[in-house]
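Comment thread on ticket #2218

A.B. wrote:
> Attaching the input chain for the structure job we discussed in standup.
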Amino acid sequence: MSIRAGSVELRPLRRSDGDRWQRIRIRDESGIAPWDATSSLSWADRHNRAQWHSHRSLLISAARRGEVLPFVITLGGEFVGQITIGGIQRGALRSAWVGYWVDSTKQGRGVATTALALAVGHALGPVGLHRVEATIAPENVSSQRVVAHLGFRQEGLLQRYLDINGAWRDHLLFAMTREEVPGGTAELLLRVSPRLGPDGFPLR
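C.D. wrote:
> Ran it. Output below, let me know if you need it in another format.
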């Protein structure tokens, strides 16, 4: 399924997205690599055509098992990033985490915040989750601003939490529960901006 607000849309991953994914992530290595999982492969080897097909296949398989909700972020129909609701737990917990990245040339226009609002609203609404978490490195101030803008609460510091860029890194824990957004996706989108411009971008 696809979810849209203005010119920002979340849709399933396509085989044809590989070239665009590869170009953006290789170009934006300096902005993405500091927050990315440790790997023995070079950045270029991690972003070749075979890696895209493997990455997509793993996400689709996990989605079929109900473990993740993987989306591509598009802007005016153009691939500009990804957002994933992952680690989905049911039962008494009904929780998941969210992770995302956006093309550096599209940042600063509310794209990541709008994509996050759509994904979290979907997770806490139709998907039936109660809680969504985001873990962000203390140095990643821009990502902290995105979650704070939507009303995520900072709950604490997770020490040596993830193996990122060659070391075990501390992460700040942010979270939101369904009770904090009774209006669902519509309320979250209003937190992005009370209105959209004629091109569909949030007005600041």
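A.B. wrote:
> Thanks. Noting for the ticket: The chain has one domain: 3-192.
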